[in-house]
Protein: Cyclic nucleotide-binding domain-containing protein
Organism: Leptobacterium flavescens
Amino acid sequence: MDPFINYIKLYIDLSHEAETEIQQLALYEEVAKGHQLLEVGKTARRLYFIVSGTIRTFFYQKGKDVTYWIYPENSVITSWHSYLLKKPSAEYIEVIEDSMLISLSYDEWQDLYSKYPELERFGRLLFQEQIALLDDFYKGYYFMTAKEKYELLLQFFPDITLRANLGYIASMLGISQETLSRIRGK
Amino acid sequence: MDPFINYIKLYIDLSHEAETEIQQLALYEEVAKGHQLLEVGKTARRLYFIVSGTIRTFFYQKGKDVTYWIYPENSVITSWHSYLLKKPSAEYIEVIEDSMLISLSYDEWQDLYSKYPELERFGRLLFQEQIALLDDFYKGYYFMTAKEKYELLLQFFPDITLRANLGYIASMLGISQETLSRIRGK
DNA sequence: TACACTTTTTGACCTATGTCAAAATTTGTG
DNA sequence: CACAAATTTTGACATAGGTCAAAAAGTGTA
């Protein structure tokens, strides 16, 4: 079965017509580690679903590579600010493990929303969930020690250390790689 | 004119029936400074629109009062995690300036979504915007110095110092009140 | 198996910002 | 107006975690 269709069905009942149309529009692609799905300055046109693999978003701050977030399979990913507001992206999107992706464009989604009320609902529910997640993660994050932040992250992504290297994880938490290394060494 | 209806019309075309129904369902209330709209442990049942006034969300971390976010008029506010997932709230919602509020309950919104497709769309667009905002604010926030964080916040909320006291603002930024005071003193 | 490259760990040192306490200032109220 | 309460500022000092550099460990590949 199409994993993205299954994912959508977790949220809503999908009509047969909508299902068929999504499958026709969707772009299925295998992408190798290291490939960039989006560059800074370009506008994000597509919303990706990760069937398998791992992706990160990052940007350069004062010359340093700072990871913003890491996404495992069964995640929906784009640069929200850029995709939703049609503005140049402030971040890169990079594949960090060979990945299988399914994507549709922004414009295709607009058509689907209008054509199928259940997809409008899917959109609402999906965005709701993203908010609840973001809200939950950031709450109480400030004023945590480096160790506490790392432990919180492990609750959210128990297998993150298998998916991304230390430098990426450390910068997600706003701490240096050396500090994270010391924390892990107990 | 009803300010919340106007707000909705910024996002969608609202049918006359939907408009009438929202106005009938909506609870209009004046709330005094200091009142708590939601307590930790209780589930958020309502989505508020702030016509005038200021509201903050906060929680206690290691015995300290930590402000999570501050909302001025024309904001939509609830405890997202609690409201959307029907779980006990991890934060308080407190009125910090006498406010005029308009609210509907979660259940009322579910009915409205089903009854009026344009409101389902409103929901999607509203949540999209919240994501774009959150996404934008947090990006690059890590690895900033206390001064840079404060300057970033001022770009988002130019008049925040008029709405909330220093301690609230400092904890929003994850810095101590003393540090913020020193930054402002140049 | 060995070489080259990448990633992680360790060490030495330093600084931004936290903490605690008290003084100064501002705000609210009878 | 004057006092009490709340808020902000200032001072002295402590420390978590940053930086830079180098060593160690891990990984891929010919």
The interface with chain A takes residues 59, 61-62, 64, 66, 68, 79-81, 84-85, 90-91, 113, 117, 120-121, 123-124, 127-132, 134-136, 138-143, 171-174 of chain B (CB under 8 Å).
